[in-house]
Amino acid sequence: MSGSREKAPNSSPRGMMGGPMGGMGGGMPGEKAKNFKGTMATLIKYTSEFKVTFIVVFVLAACSSVFSIVGPKILGKVTTKLFEGLMAWYAGTGLYTDFDYMGKLIILLAGLYIVSAIFSYTQGYIMSGISMKITYRLRRDISEKINRMPLSYFDSRTHGEVLSRITNDVDTISQTLNQSLTQMITSVSMVVGVLIMMLTISISMTLVTFLILPISFSLILLIVKKSQKHFKTQQEYLGHINGHIEETYSGHNVVQVFNGEQDAVEKFNKLNNELYHSAWKSQYLSGLMMPVMNAVGNLGYVGVCIVGGYLAIHKVITVGDIQAFLQYVRSFLQPISQIANIANTLQSTAAAAERVFEFIDEDEEVPESENPAVVDKVEGNVEFCNVTFGYTKEKIVVHNFSSKIHSGQRVAIVGHTGAGKSTIVKLLMRFYDVTDGGIKIDGHDIRQFRRKDLRSMFGMVLQDAWLYHNTIMENIRYGSFNATDAQVIEAAKAAHCDEFIRSLPGGYKMVINEEAGNISQGQKQLLTIARTILSDPKILILDEATSSVDTRTEILIQKAMENLMRNRTSFVIAHRLSTIRDADLILMMKDGNIVEQGNHEELLKKGGYYADLYQSQFADREPETA
Amino acid sequence: MIMVPWYHKITYKVERGLSFVTRLIKYSKPYIFIILGAIVLLFLQAMCDLALPDFMSEIINNGIANGDSGYIFKMGFEMLGVTICSAAFAVTVGYLAARVAAGMCRTLRKELFEKVESFSNAEFDKFSTSSLITRTTNDITQIQMLVVLLIRMMFYAPILGVGGVVHAIANSKSMSWIIFLAVIVLLCIVGFMFIFALPKFKMIQTLIDRLNQVVRENLEGMSVIRAFNTQQFEEQRFDKANRELTSTNLFVNRLMAGMMPSMMLLMNLITVLIIWVGSKQVSAFQMDVGEMMAYMQYVMQIIMAFLLMSLTFIMVPRASVSAARIADVLETMPSVSDAENAQSLANCRGFIEFKDVCFRYPGAEEDVLHNISFLSGPGQTTAFIGSTGCGKSTLLNLIPRFYDATEGEVLLDGVNIKNILLQDLRKNLGYVPQKGILFSGTIGSNLIYGDKNATEEMILAAADIAQATEIIEENPEKLDAPIAQGGTNVSGGQKQRLSIARAIVKKPQIYIFDDSFSALDFKTDAALRARLKNSTGNTTVLIVAQRISTVMSADQIIVLDQGRIVGKGTHSELMKNCEIYREIAFSQLSQEELA
Q1: Residues of B in Cβ contact (< 8 Å) with A313
Q2: Does CATH place domain B352-594 in 3.50.50.60?
Q3: Tens digits of residue pLDDT in A277-299
Q4: May I ask the CATH class of domain A382-621?
Q5: Phi and psi (nearest 5°) for A542?
Q6: Residue B493: in which H helix or E strand, if any?
Q7: Average pLDDT over residues B506-531
Q8: Nearest CB to B90 within list A253, A295, A619
Q9: What pLDDT band is residue A21 in, cutting at 50, 70 and 90?
Q10: CB atoms < 10 A from the CB of A565, how many?
Q11: Could B118 and A261 be called an inter-chain contact, meaning their C-beta atoms sit closer than 8 Å?
């Protein structure tokens, strides 16, 4: 339902926008980190290995800006020399232009500019390397973390949330490292450097120029503040309209049959109008930054011309000084608007970093037992001893459950939808740990095994068949990476899927597509059975197919599961009555708890929940049989 | 996949792009005067900005050289006026651009939404729902940004660039070669970046998608991965995707890191060059110092203009992807709509008849329904059963005309439904989809979706039949209990029952239940159907189901297999003479219970 598959093309690097238009956005409001200082400290620690490199980069960046700052002053000297020569000629003193001196200055200047460019590029080159290394490591850490976290973490979170940490949040951090960080250094050194250069030329001119500073700062702050407000409103209305679109499109059939199109369009028009009013305001204000900065720059230009001209007449400064000032005025507005945005950038970076580190620091699975139990030959006896369990400590669902299952027996788990039938499975596999009591396999508490050893005893076939983007062959081989092609095909035969695989285009070489129109749900389940057969587990966990599988395939699945269950202890989440009746033990679940256990006859006689469920399924047949 | 030659793709893109440009022009018509006004203002702004160096030149040549401070103040005052004008023009242009962009997007968004609302399921299948959502939301936002950019940059940059060249040449013809040198070097740098970076940019998107895919697979298959102990394998898979993405990103970033330093270097060296060449000319009395300084500033403005233009060209292809995606939707005609001579339907009696109906999904190679014929009338329940993919839901989808039959006829009261006004046809249908779908609002607003005038009594009665009373009762706000967007605050079973109640409130002549009972447990399912049977009385009921217990009591059961009817009759008849029906029955119930 979410539009996540088609991402808006907004994730390409900010690189190309970073230059002369860096301050154009007018500063979109970022979210704020809960603990700014702490997160920044963690981020600095995380990147501490690059401490020295960072310092080198900062020095390079600062040097590069200083070198380019010296330029206009030297250039000004050249012009002054030229002007003086000219004036002298007018005055008839015969002093003529000193091309030797000017030539030297110009070569020096060109050299400085080239060195500055080289420094600037080297700095960018190194910084890209560092930021990419850090980005790579953050992603790797998150991905590895996923595998070490308890499954319970993901109960309350959508996949989208985790995905967005790996992509969006890591991207934000990466961009800050790659660009904003050095931008801050260059901006600050630019402003400071320009200020110093101006002061060395003329204090009074500097004062005049800096009159525009408070003007530009307050204008920037005003625009940022205003545009953030409207940006937020716009986002809010955008949210409303997107919600309406998503809902209407997803329920298209219902809208049609209930003739609801007109209503939907009317509501849409209303929302669209609201959006329009906030959209143009937001667009207008956020686009105001550039013209306003331009205007401030022009004001500075005019100021320099007037005051500079006046001072030049009174021989306080030279013509070259005016020229240098004109260049300085132009070159320090850009860094100022960048500095104004630093706070925003840092905030949103901190917010992103906070989410990433929060994830990386989440609790992991309980550590492994120190001297793990090792069983050479697993028999498959399973014993539940006074098992008590709740997903949260406050809400216990399984109360004091005990049962003994012998090697090779078949256990059916039954209950209504949402009765918690998969709880037992999760406990057996240690996706969750029991709150109290214990589960034993062949006499050892499962917590004594290493997770890896425990889980390799089990084979699992779930209804929601999970396959990954690769060929069918590799998907089956997932059960045992060492298996040969022949062994894979053998397993496929045992799982009754060899035949349909061969009929597919490409056969075993066909790539399973994620959007997976290419094979049916039932066929997918058959493949997962083959995968499990290949892994040859001692204990099985099966989830019977319900409505989504067609009858023919369902019969194949049944046969394949029969093959699989032979000589193995098995737990079946059962929907078919025939499976339930044949089971050695039935566990009746209700509201997460195991309320009854026994075989079909025993439970029917008992006349409890199971009998009730059994009756209700055939309630409307009763008049006929009566 | 059929291999399409690369140049086809390019021509296709260009065509889509062009068709969108014409469309954009169409949308801009109501704003044509505003846009022209904006261009005029931009022109004036450029003139103002370009005039400043001239003033400066005058101040230096006449003011300083002659020591005339009065002249300086006079000129300075005029300059100030020009600056203020320039700022006013720029701010006004920003305002106009924002109004135009937001306005055009409002129209575009509206047309897109209305278009999608007119689509049948065939078009939804073609684009996929999530893609339609993205197109109506994100893609439009992209266009809005593009329009602002077009007005502000695309018009301004050339004006500034050309103006700069004119002013510069007016100042000194002999130095114009410097301008051309600067522009050529600039174009080379930008072109170099384009050629090397653009293909990589596209690649990065693919690599990000691949990385996301691995993560998504990892999240979805978490329990399987742990069960098979394949964490390490998955980490390697992720690492490979991560490495590829990182190295491509690194390449692009390092390339882009060269952009600013090289631009700055170009600007600075050109300045030096102008000073060097200029001072020679000044000494030869071919130009003034002030003119030389002004010249320097013109060249800066020209380079700036070119820089802006090349940045715009980077933005345009990105937005044109969105544009093409929007144009695709707007240019698609809905496959189901009212016929010209469609008639209204006054009193629907509820006879549904399929006459030799065949159906093929658009673009498919084979029919999914073959020669389907049956009749169902008021007071009768017809159930459809069969394996997935046998076409039973597809068959029901033909009745509300989500799709139209490819061959044969679907008749309502003897009239081909293609000749009935869509609105009238659907007014008589009570449709309950497989997945309960609710809309944001309240429980009450959802229940009266089919009949805005329903009384509370009617609503509660319908809820009672649908076994939904407890959902209403357990909420202190009763019918006013809020339903979140997409109905996320109620469970699947509750949604299902509420959407059944919604259909009942509508009091339709024909009920269509498309596997609507699957999310209910056996007990609720049974109770609901018993109540429904009593209250639907003289209506026509069509049910698709997977559970044999759901269909057993129907008046007529139709067994479908691979799009064909392979059995028709009551439960006991079919048990006797339909092999496939028996197979289904035995797979779900044991012999004893079926006897």
Answers
A1: 63-64, 67-69, 72
A2: no
A3: 888 888 888 778 777 877 888 88
A4: alpha beta
A5: -125, 145
A6: helix B492-505
A7: 78
A8: A295
A9: very low
A10: 17
A11: yes
pLDDT in tens, B284-319: 777 777 788 888 888 888 888 877 777 776 666 667
Rounded to a whole number, what is the distance in Å from the CA of B517 to chain A's nearest CA?
Answer: 11
Beta-carbon count within 10 A of B121 CB: 20
**Res B95 pLDDT > 60:** yes
CA distance B20 to B12: 12
Query: What's the CA gap between B517 and B549, in Å, rounded?
Result: 11
> Does A551 contact B386 at a Cβ distance shorter than 8 Å?
yes
Strand-pair category, A444-445 with B482-483: unpaired
Instruction: State the nearest Cα–Cα gap between A39 and chain B, in angstroms.
Output: 24
Task: Give, in words, the CATH class of B16-156+316-333.
Answer: mainly alpha
Retrieve residue A122's tokens.
Answer: 């080297």
List all residues 6 or more positions away from A449 whose beta carbon is below 8 Å from its beta carbon.
A369, A372, A373, A375, A441
- What would the mean pLDDT of A434-440 be, rounded to a whole number? 88
On chain B, the residues whose CB falls within 8 A of the CB of A258 are: 426, 431, 449-450, 502, 506
Domain boundaries, chain B: 16-156+316-333, 173-286, 352-594
Question: What are the sequence ranges of the domains in chain A?
Answer: 31-186, 382-621
Q: Is the pLDDT of residue A124 over 80?
A: yes
Number of residues that this document lists for chain B: 595
Domain A31-186: which CATH class?
Answer: mainly alpha
Angstroms from A436 CA to nearest CA on chain B: 23
Among left, alpha and beta (phi > 0; psi -120 to 50; other), residue A229 is: alpha
The b-or-e profile of A472-495 (16+ CB within 10 A means b, else e) is: bbbbbbbbbeebeeebbbbbbebb
User: A444-460 pLDDT, tens per residue?
Assistant: 888 888 888 888 888 88
DSSP A452-488: HHHHHHEEEE-SS----SSBHHHHHHTT-TT--HHHH
| Tokens 């101040």 belong to residue | B59
Q: Give the strands of the sheet with B407-412, arranged side by side.
A: B369-376, B352-359, B407-412, B415-416
Residues B537/B559, Cβ–Cβ less than 8 Å? no
Q: What is the per-residue pLDDT for B318?
A: 64
Instruction: For residue B21, name the pLDDT band (cuts at 50, 70, 90).
Output: low
CB hemisphere CA count around B535 (13 angstroms)? 22
CB contact under 8 A, A11 and B205: yes
Considering only CB atoms, A19 lies closest to which of B60, B260, B386, namely B260
Contacting residues of B for A301, CB less than 8 Å apart: 52, 56, 83
d(CA B540, CA B396): 13
Residue A51's contacts (CB-CB under 8 Å, 6 or more residues apart) are none
Instruction: Decide if A273 and B211 are in contact by the 8 Å CB cutoff.
Output: no
Q: Compute the distance between CA of residue B366 and CA of residue A207 in angstroms, rounded to an integer.
A: 82
DSSP per-residue string spanning B16-72:
HHHHHHHHHHHHHGGGHHHHHHHHHHHHHHHHHHHHHHHHHHHIIIIIIHHT-HHHH
Minimum-distance CB partner of B486 among A247, A549, A577: A247
CA distances from A91 to A87, A101, B67, B282 (A): 6, 21, 13, 16
Instruction: Tell me which residue in B386, B486, B491 faces A1 most closely, judged by beta carbons.
Output: B486
Q: What is the DSSP code (8-state) at residue A316?
A: S
To the nearest 10°, the Cα dihedral for A153, A154, A155, A156? Answer: 80
Does ipTM top 0.90?
no
DSSP B509: S
- Residue B86 to residue A298: CA distance in whole angstroms: 9
By Cβ distance, the residue of A113, A257, A273 closest to B400 is A257
Cα–Cα dist B265/B51, whole Å:
26
